Amino acid sequence: MDYVETKYFTFGNPPDELTLKSGVKLGPITLAYETYGTLNADQSNAILIFHALTGDAHAAGYHPDAKSPGWWDAMIGPGRAFDTNKYFMICANVIGSCKGSTGPSSTDPKTNKPYGLSFPVVTIEDMTVAQKYLIDHLGIKKLFACAGGSMGGLMALKWAVLFPEAAQSVILIATNYRHTAQQIALHEVARQAIMSDPDWQGGDYYGKSLPARGMAVSRMIGHITYMSEKSMDAKFGRKLIAKEKLGYDFSHDFEVENYLKYRGDSFVQRFDANSYLYLSKALDYFDLAEDGDITAVLKNVKAKVLIITFTSDWLYPSYQSKQMVKAFKANDVEVSFVELDTDYGHDSFLVEIESQSKLVRHFLDNVGKDGN
Amino acid sequence: MENAIRPDHKMILEIVEHGSRVLDLGCGDGELLSLLKTKKSCRVTGIEISEEAIFKCLERGVTVSQGDIDSGLTDYSDKRFDYVVLNESLQEVLNPERVILEACRVGKKVIVGIPNFCNISARLQVFFKGRVPVTKWLPYKWYNTPNIRFLSLKDFRYFCQDKGIEILKERALNQDKEIFVRTNLFAFVGIFLLKKD
To answer: Where are the domains positioned within chain B?
Structure first.
């Protein structure tokens, strides 16, 4: 088996820094990215995948010595929905993250110390624009498709609006065109959990003890929002952990408690607390319709669109995507919409592979086939 | 290899002009839309409720949205389509009146295909057997039929008259052949071309 490797692309060296939406300049910027498959001679088979909040560039295949493959490996590979025998797949880590791209845990070249909270606030637009630099660098003028779920979906949508000439098709999964009050509220609880941990120290914890309790709690909240009541009940029910009966104390009784603790604790090891603050804020700032109504914003979109939602996803419920569908239709954009019947909640986009694969494969098969 | 085109689809293909914009309500697996797209270069889209059928639509390259046509066509502005098709779906909706009026609102013309519940074979079964009819075109029993609206071609004509809908054309099929006389008695399927300004 061939291993995949993470590559790095750096741009925005002073004085050519990237001007962010906030007006602040950021540079140099490094993006970690991976590619799978082969770019064809006329550079027309490239598909850009955008990852979700805590995701990374490692979407498919195995790194040497790794036990598990990339986060969307079931969807990307030879003969899979995103067929690497046909398509050149690209996935890059977003700016603000901690998975190889420039973010708050990166070293600020001006101070030679981690940015911490001096890292500028980035938006979904900034993250998307940064990836356009990578696509230009790879010599690709027009993507065959761009696709993403959750935060990745917001970026794919933003790409279609910002660069209407640079994508033939767009796949939006379990996503929305603006973050709603409930979505913002849930993120705010997660942020407060981190910031109220004494070890957070105003974001200046690098090289010291990590805000582990806050991170764990924020991840617990996250995990609850990614599942559905039904999937949690199926997975844990009221099962007790190694106990015959209730303990009548505040140690853990239930399996679900243990699961959340495990998820929370392991998150501290794999993600940076400040990155979580920055990226969740970027999501909350996202409102594609801020300059007017959503129909007007989508008027320049030229790509063919596929929108997928999941019945049990209460974090990004289907009605939000249906509003997008309506706005696309009003603009004569060719849009297909499916609400898949699943029990896995928001996480469905990562685990409901069979139905998604059918949809994505058939959709891609017909991109560019007719003038429709 | 191309499968033979269904006779009702053939009639609809004859009605729709080249390059028209067509919306199919309850488009099923997209067979008709796919024909309209390839044979008539139409710009097509469908609405369908079944997930499995939608997979097939996408496989055929037919643009489709999952939705329930009973809940209206609020996604579309007035007269957006040259044709709105309601073929073999009207008898399954809860509120046919609203669905047809919505179709007339978003379509310049509307094509409705309905099974004739009062063709002679059904009438004879009711009369002689005293049972709810089961025919080749209506193969279901009373307890498992998806059809919840039972009407004849004549009923439909009266409906259009009541609602101020103009019938521009009416064609009828018995088995696979077009028939021209006593259609309400002999037709299994009627295809209507409607218009309402």
So the answer is: 7-195
Beta strand pairing call for B21-25 and B43-48? parallel
Say how far apart CA A151 and CA B117 lie, in whole Å: 52
How many helices and strands, by DSSP H and E, does chain A display?
11, 14
Which residues of A are catalytic, by number?
150, 313, 346
In chain A, the domains with their CATH numbers are 7-179+285-365 (3.40.50.1820), 183-282 (1.10.1740.110)
Q: Where are the alpha helices (DSSP H) in B47-119?
A: 51-59, 96-106
pLDDT 10s digits, A292-328: 789 999 999 999 999 999 999 999 999 999 999 999 9
Confirm if A313 and A346 have CB atoms less than 8 A apart. Answer: yes
In A41-150, where does DSSP find H-type helix?
A: 124-137
pLDDT single digits (tens) A269-279 = 899 999 999 99
CATH code: domain B7-195 is: 3.40.50.150
Instruction: State pLDDT tens for residues B152-182.
Output: 999 999 999 999 999 999 999 998 899 999 9
What is the rounded average pLDDT of the residues A177-184?
96
Substitution target in A171, A309, A329, A357 with the highest count of B β-carbons within 10 Å is A329
Calculate what percentage of chain A has a pLDDT beyond 90.
92
Residues of B contacting chain A (CB within 8 angstroms): 37, 43-45, 51, 54-55, 57-59, 61, 63-67, 74-77
Q: How far apart are the first and last CA of chain B?
A: 42
Q: What is the identity of the amino acid at A289?
A: A
**What is the ipTM for the molecules in this complex?**
0.93
Residues of chain B contacting residue A321, judged by C-beta atoms under 8 Å apart: none
